[in-house]
Amino acid sequence: MEPYLHFKFNPSEKEKEIDLIDLGESLVGFDKLIRYLVKITNIKGSVSIQAVRYRDGSIIVDTLVYIKDILDQLPFDNITDLLDFLKLANDMVWEMAKDFFSEIKPGYELLNDYFRSHPLDLGLIVIVINTLINKAQKCKEKKALGNGDIPERYALELHKLIHKHIFKLAIKPIIDDKLDSIEVSFERDFVKAAKIDQGNFENYLGKDDQILPHLENGLIYDFSGEITSLKSTRGDSLTFQHSFKKKEYNLDLLPPDGETTKGFTDYYKEKVIIKAEVIRTSFYKKPKLKLNTIDFQQMPLFDISQVKD
């Protein structure tokens, strides 16, 4: 069972690139996500996921999903779980299964009878994973659940995954503007794919995933922090380390128009107070700051009266 992952960026935008750490974190995130998605289906057996090869085309990673300990037991404990699974996997197989079970009252022996004549194609699991990722973007709000698009139980579980931050690590390169999109497909050519991109990634994140949401685009604020680096290789900017609610944020600080980072070397590794305009496209991404004024933080004066003899 091979789900394919396509990490895609626009090669014409030279500032966009992804290093192995970012790619590795995203793959770890998808490993965790896929395990949760398989768990939603209530299929029995333990999940194992492996990356088996890498292909060009931005970055394409072919993976394998194994379901262990499933061959010697019934894949599902009840008919409802089986039908919910088949509804997402294959309409024709789902209709045939409904017809099979409608003729006799549901029961455990009936499940045995069904699987004797209709062995479960485990490849359907990859299709279901693909479908669940695609449908999850409609499950962020509870009021959107239960519209019949997917089984209501699945929709509720996807809603929980979003608000438990299960998608967050997998799509972190999109949040960090290092990728344009990530596609997941059960087809090697990605004709049919679940696509998470810059236009819909917010649908996979809960409200408490927002980053410094009190900072509004276009407004000017006072900040205190430290200049930790001066960058010029991918556009002039300074790294401004700012603390908010006991958490550190490394924000891009852009020099005023007509100036470069070379004019701010005196502030490198210094505690500063700045006045800056917030530039942001999403509350789920770190804002950038456009520098207005900068000054050193004033250190408290030394009080000689506190010195003991």
Characterize the structure shown:
- There is one protein chain.
- The protein is of the alpha+beta class and 309 residues long.
- It folds into 2 domains: 4-70 and 122-207, no CATH class; 220-296, OB fold (Dihydrolipoamide Acetyltransferase, E2P) (Beta Barrel).
- Helix content is 27%, strand content 27%.
- It contains 7 helices and 10 strands.
- It has a 5-stranded antiparallel sheet. Strands 6-7-8-10-9 form a 5-stranded mixed β-barrel.
- Helix 2 packs antiparallel against helix 3.
- The longest helix is centred in the first third of the chain and has 21 residues, at 20-40.
- The chain is elongated, with a radius of gyration of 26 Å.
- The N and C termini lie far apart (77 Å).
- 24% of the residues are buried.
- The model has no long low-confidence stretch (mean pLDDT 87).
